[in-house]
Amino acid sequence: MKPSVPKSDSNRRVIDAAREVMARRDRELDGETLASLRCARARALEAQRVRAPVWLPAGAAVAAAVVVALLWTRAPEPEAELFAGGEWLLEDGMEIELMEEMDFYQWLAEEALDDHSS
Amino acid sequence: MNQFLASVERRAFTMARLAVGNPDDALDIVQDAMLALVKNYRHRDRAEWRPLFFTILNNRITDWHRRRNTISRWQLLRERLVGDSAEDAELDPGDLPGPQAAAPDRALISERTLDAIDSAVGRLPLRQQQAFLLRCVEGFDVAETARAMSCSGGSVKTHLSRALATLRKHLEDLR
C-alpha cells in the first residue's frame, strides 16, 4: 500500500516539478525559434517606432478640410455653368434625358426654321 | 520595452507552444501579443506590462482554440458528409514529446517525474492549464489570474483545483 502524502506536499511537488519543466523548456528552445522570437520582438518594436504621432492624422484631416473648403468656395461650379439660364428645366421637373438631348432639339428647331424660311 | 519583451519571450513561447501544440502558431500568437502590448500599452507603467502581456497572450491562445474548434467542427461535418477521415492525425492535439526510454536508475527518477508533469500539463484542458501556469508557475495572484483569463476568482480556484488534482494523480501513479 502506498504511503499517503499530505495534499499540500503533493501540490508542492507538482508545482516545483512544473516550474522546472517550464524552465527546461525555456532553456531548450532551439536557435531557429530564438531567432524567430528576436524577429518578432524587433517587428513589434519597429511598429512602435514607425507609428505616426497621434496628432498627425488629426492635423492632416484639418489641412485637407481647409483645402476642400477653399476649392469649394472659389472654384466655379461646373453644374452651375452647364445649366446657366436653364434652371427652369429642373424646376419644371423635366427629365435628365431631355436635357442631354438639347443639342438634338436645337438642331431640329434650326432645321425646321431653315425649312420654313426656304 | 525591448528588455521586457526579451525577458518574457521564451516563457511566452513555451506557454503558447504547450497550449496550441505547434511552434508556428505559438510564434504567431507571441508576436501578436507583443504587437498588441507595444501598440496599446507601451505608455502604461512598466510594472503593469507583465500582467497585461500575459493577459493578451492568454486571450490570443483562447481565440486560437475557439477558431480551431470551429474549424474542427466544420471538418467533422465535412468528413461525415464526404466520408473523408484522412486528416484525423492533424486534429490530434497531442503534439507532445513521448516518454523517454530512460534507464531504471534512481538518479533518473526526478527526470521521470519531470517528463510526467511535462506531459500531463500539456494534456490539461486549456482553462485548467492557463490557471495552473499563471497561478503556480508564473506566480500571479488569484485576481491577476482571473483578469488574465477573463473570468472570476472563483473560476480560477475551480480550474486550479482540478488541474492540481489531475497532476497529483499523475505523480502518484509514478510511485
UniProtKB/TrEMBL annotation, chain B:
Transferase among keywords: yes
| Residue ranges annotated for the RNA polymerase sigma factor 70 region 4 type domain, each copy included | 115-167
InterPro entries in alphabetical order: RNA_pol_sigma-70-like, RNA_pol_sigma-70_dom, RNA_pol_sigma70_r2, RNA_pol_sigma70_r4_t2, RNA_pol_sigma_r2, RNA_pol_sigma_r3/r4-like, WH-like_DNA-bd_sf
Which keywords belong to this entry? Nucleotidyltransferase, Sigma factor, Transcription, Transcription regulation, Transferase
| GO biological process: one example | DNA-templated transcription initiation
List the Gene3D superfamilies hit by this protein, alphabetically.
Answer: 1.10.1740.10, Winged helix-like DNA-binding domain superfamily/Winged helix DNA-binding domain
Q: State whether keyword Nucleotidyltransferase applies.
A: yes
Ranges of residues in domain RNA polymerase sigma-70 region: 9-69
Q: Name one GO molecular function term.
A: sigma factor activity
EC assignment: the record states: 2.7.7.6
Question: NCBIfam families given for it?
Answer: PRK09047.1 (NF006550), sigma70-ECF (TIGR02937)
- Family membership: Belongs to the sigma-70 factor family. ECF subfamily.
**What is this protein called in UniProt?**
RNA polymerase sigma factor
